[in-house]
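Class, study these two lines:
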Amino acid sequence: MVTHVPAEAHGDERGALLSFLAEQRDAIRRAARGLTDEQAAATPSASELSLGGLVKHCAEVEQGWLARARGEAPAVHRDRSNWDECFRLMEGETLQSHLAYWEEIAAQTEAYVRSVPSLDDTFALPDQPWFPPEGRVSVRWLVLHLIRETARHAGHADIVRESLDGRTAFELIAAEQGTSWG
């Protein structure tokens, strides 16, 4: 669901990239708005995706890429044995706790992107078969990748929410703004 992203200050590439990333995060958060943990864990569409799982996944992915950019290990190690756990709320996990965690990660991402000397600064890609050996990417690539990843899942979130209770992104935006759609 497209919403308006204000134009950046002239020459503020970092601000523009971060604004588009924030817009996509907001789309997922909005899709989860007002849900109980039970609703957030539900998988009402043809896929196994839930809104809680999408929030959790996006937070983990953003944290993982931010950690790599800083030269650190991701907070959660995912492999074939536990990959599915990043897409669903596990026992004792709540939608609110993952939304709060993602908010912390988002603030760290913004601080990091604003603090690096240049968006052209690079860091090593993980040693995984789908990346080129000894590959490197820029901080600009990092933010663009996060925008792409988050936008993809924002579309999923819209479908899951509409499948869950019929509410569309337009209705959720209107509710967020205190107006009505239609």
User: Anything to note?
Assistant: Helices lie at 13-31, 37-41, 51-69, 95-115, 139-165, 169-177. The chain has a mean pLDDT of 92. The chain is about 55% helix and 5% strand. The longest strand covers residues 122-124.
